[in-house]
Design a protein that fits this description.
alpha+beta, Alpha-Beta Plaits, Immunoglobulin-like, four-stranded antiparallel β-sheet, disordered N terminus
Length: 335
């Protein structure tokens, strides 16, 4: 009996080790366990005209029955990324606790001004990602490439004012700030030119010590609320959130948003939300019906599957379809 017992213990050790490895893989693949709260990124609209200010909100909500604490810099506890454009965020050196009682939300707001930041840098679909470590969410908007912005230039004592005036005139640039009582640097406001193209063209210009796009990013304001974001924000775009918890066993929650469909005057839209394995085989249909605009959540329980569709430990996919909108995300199941 002892050899059998040793073999059984060895088998259990291997199985536990395999589960641990899979769990680590899932954390690496998905970045965070969303069972500790909800992060949501929203914008004031989904389609922007040329040069429109873009309002971005990052919401963190404690949707659990226990307090949650997140730690970080006062200026950088929440951050955003716009289409991977490199921006500068100045973080304070403090390291403090942000406490969230059950049901509490905190909101951070940014106002992205194309005339200052020179964004978007491309036409069409733009991706905005919000972070509140270890949480992350994203939203998509449509906007035109902006030609203009602010550049930061280093001046040389050996170059005359007349020469700099000629350079500014050729670039249709105006001085909006300069170093105090020295001839060290200036900030130029640019019109009708991509500031990234301008920086690339003039970075080796002998008249300048340096030139770079000035893209300093700060959130404009923050506030706390007892109201969950789903009750305050009317969806203006389709979105599919990362499931939570993730990895999961046996149950996980998936949230999605459906905007008002104005183009066809439809009050209801056909919605489909399904789960697939890595080979594309359908595992479960979570939603297959007409729905009105709003924020929704659905619970997926792996124990309720038919025997022929039982899930093994691993990575799966869930896909939301609504008209021409399709979005797919990964989820991880640990048996």
């Amino acid at each position: 009996m002892k050899p059998i017992l040793r073999l059984r213990r060895h088998y259990l050790a291997i199985k536990i080790k395999a589960i641990q490895v899979l769990y680590i893989f899932c954390l690496l693949a998905f970045g965070t366990d969303y069972g500790q709260g909800i992060l949501k990124v929203t914008t004031d609209k989904s389609v922007y005209s040329y040069g429109d200010m873009i309002e971005v909100k990052v919401w963190f909500t404690n949707n659990t029955d226990k307090p949650i604490s997140i730690y970080g810099s006062s200026n950088c506890i929440a951050r955003i990324n716009f289409n991977d454009v490199q921006m500068v965020t100045y973080c304070t050196a403090d390291y403090r606790e942000f406490y969230f009682a059950p049901g509490k939300s905190k909101v951070w707001i940014w106002y992205l001004d194309p005339k200052v930041l020179g964004i978007p840098t491309v036409d069409g679909k733009q991706k905005i990602v919000g972070y509140c470590y270890p949480f992350k969410d994203s939203v998509y908007i449509t906007a035109q490439k902006y030609r203009g912005g602010i550049v930061f230039v280093g001046l040389k004592d050996s170059v005359s004012d007349e020469e700099y005036n000629k350079l500014r005139d050729s670039l249709n640039a105006s001085v909006i700030a300069r170093s105090y009582n020295t001839r060290e640097y200036e900030e130029w406001s640019i019109s009708n030119k991509s500031i990234d193209s301008l920086v690339a063209k003039y970075k080796a210009d002998p008249r300048l010590r340096w030139i770079q796009a000035k893209r300093d990013l700060y959130f404009a304001k923050q506030f706390e609320t007892d109201i969950d974001y789903t009750k305050e924000v009317i969806p203006n775009i389709y979105s599919l959130s990362q499931n939570y918890p993730n990895p999961f066993n046996p149950e996980t929650t998936i949230e999605y948003s459906i905007p008002v469909e104005t183009r066809r005057g439809e009050s209801l839209q056909k919605i489909s939300l399904k789960v697939y394995d890595v080979l594309g085989r359908e595992i479960a249909t979570l939603v297959d019906e007409y729905k009105s605009a709003g924020n929704y959540k659905v619970t997926f329980n792996a124990r309720h599957l038919e025997r022929s569709r039982e899930m093994n430990s691993g990575v799966y996919f869930y896909q939301l379809r609504a008209g021409s909108f399709i979005e797919t995300k990964k989820l991880c199941f640990i048996k």
